[in-house]
Amino acid sequence: MDAALSAADETVAALLACSANPNYTSSSGTALMFAIHSGCPSTIGLLAPVTSTGLGEALERLAREQVPVTPDIRELVERAAKDQEAGRRGLEEAVKFGHTDMVKLLIEKMVEQPLPESLTRRLLEEAVMSDSSSTCAAVLAVSKSVPEQVKELARKRGRKEVVKMISQHEGSQEMDLELKKKLKMNILNNKADIKNTVPKSDEFRYNNEMLKLSP
Questions:
Q1: Which tens digits make up the pLDDT trace of 33-52?
Q2: I want to staple 7 with a disulfide (CB 3.0 to 4.6 A). Which of 40, 85, 98, 197 is the partner?
Q3: Distance CA 103, CA 205 (A)
Q4: 3-class DSSP state of 145
């Protein structure tokens, strides 16, 4: 585990060659977990193919650390997805942290059995909260409809691409029109917050500028 955390590939390889057990689990997880924490792709690549325990937790850590999907990671994710519980844990975390490549891979491997509506709804909410339009697109691809509370959440977040994507999924511009009408009424009634009157677009990233604008 120390070798994995230090990304000492030669030591990790030597220990594996000497029959060290990669599935041994400490209070902090397996050696693979330590390798993921190190962020070293080669160390992860050594341990991913030989680890078979704690895969759900490993997927969660891969998502949080935004580890790129290499061939070794792909094999690990595909293997973990065969376990329904591990796959769901990884999928929820990947959506939460906007790890789109991992989201797509897990959904691809889990579509043999349709995702429960309750899970899809939760994933949509997390996708909107991630502010990642690509992650939203991946989840929308397996969603039959968008619940009203998810639409409202998208409006509150105010991410133009996410709002647009959800409205397109519904097959109309209803959300955009409703949002504009609501903003117009708030402005006319002097109830609009300054943050809501600033255009939100790729050209003007208002979230990064509000501290300058507020004074």
A1: 999 988 888 999 999 999 99
A2: 40
A3: 26
A4: coil
